[in-house]
Amino acid sequence: MAQIINGKLVSQNVREAQKKETEELFQKYGKKPGLAVIIVGEDPASKVYVANKEKACIEVGFYSELYRMPESTTIEELLALIDRLNKDDKIHGILCQLPLPKHLDEEKVILAIDPNKDVDAFHPVNTGKIMIGNHSFLPCTPAGVMKLIESTGTDISGKECVVIGRSNIVGKPQAMLLLQANGTVTICHSRTKNLKEVTKRADILVVAIGKADFVTGDMIKEGAIVIDVGMNRRQDGKLTGDVDFESAEKVASYITPVPGGVGPMTITMLLQNTLTAFKQTL
């Protein structure tokens, strides 16, 4: 039976360290890390996520600003706000909550954010730096996954690592981080043939495809570490991941639950990026 990787506990430990460092920096410089969060429209999931970010900032002692913009906001209005925040010395990190309403060009918005304040690490400058291993910021979810693997005491070096999913936000950067940790990495996706044969080789399996309970116990190597990035809602309203927890738990050595696994780490790593951005200005 697998040991549960408690994302809440790992996250709490990282945040305590962030809070301590923030206090020490404030004593020394009289300044705090500042995060600006922009949300456009009324997406319910985004509203919850943004509220959690604001709460997390208060918890670790950051300065934060929240901009709630109506669905009708034009691209010009949004870019003007980003331009102002780029020039604001109190703000070290800027996050524009995605998805945006359909009439707004996400790529234009990502490109408008100063790469030195791009704490989501979505700007091409930062994604390029991740590729060459010379990064200031890491995408929040993949960085959180690495912390969770680290918490098991596992050395990634030389391990067979399989990532299911190839999104720009999770799959691709996740593969890069595992590769930089000297893992042997395979990326799988909807066109992968004989998926089960590939996943059964994995010492470390990261699943990020957005399909409820897709990976079952018979697809997992005995003793593997299973990280479930998925967050889906079943018909009965219950949250579930991309991994069928019940069958996977019987095979894996370590597994993340949903909720309470990867989720808490994402905001924690956003705070880490903001702290890093702040320290670069000192």
Task: Give a description of the structure.
This protein is of the alpha/beta class and 282 residues long. It folds into two domains: 30-115, Rossmann fold (3-Layer(aba) Sandwich), CATH 3.40.50.10860; 140-263, 3-Layer(aba) Sandwich (Rossmann fold). It is built from ten helices and eleven strands. The protein has helices spanning 7-29, 44-60, 75-86, 106-112, 124-132, 140-151, 171-180, 195-199, 245-249, 263-279; strands spanning 3-4, 34-40, 63-69, 93-96, 160-164, 184-188, 204-207, 225-228, 232-233, 239-240, 254-255. A six-stranded parallel beta sheet has the order 1-11-8-7-5-6. It has a three-stranded parallel beta sheet with strand order 3-2-4, with helices on both faces. It has a two-stranded antiparallel sheet with strand order 9-10. Helix 1 (7-29) runs parallel beside helix 10 (263-279). It is globular, with a radius of gyration of 19 Å. The N and C termini lie far apart (48 Å). The mean pLDDT is 96.
